């Protein structure tokens, strides 16, 4: 087992600098024979390394790296559901001082079980309810022997508010996921094997997973993303916010500048800039007909991981869209096989 971070991750002021993404305004929906097309070109080129920073903007990947991250006080609340395979609880935990709500599925049996933190895609917080998103994955993964902690994120359901989060590219969601892992590991619950913890995210949540891997290397053992957003936040800003007339776009530009006006900020927000920090294996699953998050985004991200010598696999599903309805069973078997191999039992 590789050495891992302690209950708080402290990483001094960094080394490198470039672009990240914690999501756009794409809807969360749900989604196999695998082909891997060559990386396609993009209107936004992969950024080159930039000089070392002497100080980190707190709204940046370097800012997150420089910050000390805490997660604790995982509390099981009311039972939401009981099945033949698991019990689902409402939960809360603390992440960098905020109270975050969510749900947790605990398999029947003695354990200890491997655990997964799930990062959902974009759902308007005004209509979001606790545990919404990734419902199929929550159920199946618990039935296959995983403790599943699905975080609601800040500003969602019963979580505390963070009024600046949208304007700050939703980087706070990354803190919530890192905090969820620490809270699981510090829970001292016999059902949880804290030496076997992974991440699974889809769509916007895929971008949150990318951020987590570069901000906190060694925190988890493996990661899976379905139909992820771009690892360049400038792509997501243009595709989901500026092009769609999202009113948040004006606030982002007023606070941080547009990608054209302030390219340094957008480079420093991008996980692809810091891919050399990643230590965990990554599986990317993407449909070739996805018109919400184009396949070329995942091709470019996988190519950057490969160029950096990282353990990455891109599996594509011909004709599948963003929702993975037709090939969802196949894709989940691929994901579970990957997780079982990377988070093995005794």
UniProtKB/TrEMBL annotation:
Residues 36-50 have a biased composition (Pro residues). SUPFAM superfamilies: alpha/beta-Hydrolases. Coiled coil: none annotated. It comes from the Bacteria. InterPro entries: AB_hydrolase_fold, FrsA_esterase, Peptidase_S9_cat. One of its GO terms (molecular function) is hydrolase activity. Residues 24-57 are annotated as: Disordered. Residues 137-342 form the Peptidase S9 prolyl oligopeptidase catalytic domain. Belongs to the AB hydrolase superfamily. This is Alpha/beta fold hydrolase. The lineage of its organism: Bacteria, Bacillati, Actinomycetota, Actinomycetes, Kitasatosporales.
């Amino acid at each position: 087992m590789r050495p891992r971070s302690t209950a708080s991750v402290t990483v001094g002021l960094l080394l490198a600098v470039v672009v990240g993404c914690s999501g756009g305004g794409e809807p969360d929906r749900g989604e196999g024979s695998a082909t891997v097309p060559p990386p396609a070109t993009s209107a936004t080129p992969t950024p080159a390394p930039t000089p070392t920073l002497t100080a980190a903007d707190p709204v940046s990947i370097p800012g997150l790296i420089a910050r000390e991250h805490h997660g604790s006080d995982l509390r099981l609340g009311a039972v939401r559901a009981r099945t033949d395979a698991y019990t689902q609880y409402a939960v809360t935990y603390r992440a960098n001082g905020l109270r975050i709500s969510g749900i947790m599925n605990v398999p029947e049996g003695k354990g200890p079980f491997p655990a997964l933190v799930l990062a959902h895609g974009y759902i308007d917080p005004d209509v979001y309810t606790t545990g919404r998103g990734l419902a199929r994955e929550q159920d199946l993964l618990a039935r296959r022997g995983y403790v599943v902690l699905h975080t609601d994120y800040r500003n969602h359901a019963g979580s505390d508010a963070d009024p600046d989060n949208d304007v700050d590219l939703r980087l706070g969601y990354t803190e919530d996921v890192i905090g969820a892992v620490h809270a699981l590991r510090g829970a001292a619950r016999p059902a949880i094997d804290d030496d076997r913890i992974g991440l699974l995210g889809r769509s916007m949540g895929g971008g949150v997973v990318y951020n987590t891997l570069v901000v906190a290397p060694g925190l988890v053992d493996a990661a899976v993303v379905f139909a992820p957003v771009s690892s360049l936040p400038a792509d997501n800003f243009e595709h989901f916010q500026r092009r769609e007339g999202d009113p948040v776009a004006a606030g982002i530009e007023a606070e941080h500048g547009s990608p054209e006006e302030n390219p340094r900020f957008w480079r420093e927000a991008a996980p692809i800039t810091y891919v050399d920090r990643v230590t965990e294996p990554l599986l990317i699953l993407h449909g070739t007909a996805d018109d919400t998050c184009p396949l070329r985004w995942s091709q470019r991200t996988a190519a950057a991981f490969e160029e950096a010598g990282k353990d990455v696999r891109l599996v594509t599903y011909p004709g599948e869209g963003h929702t993975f309805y037709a090939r969802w069973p196949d894709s989940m078997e691929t994901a579970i096989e990957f997780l079982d191999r990377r988070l093995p039992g005794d």
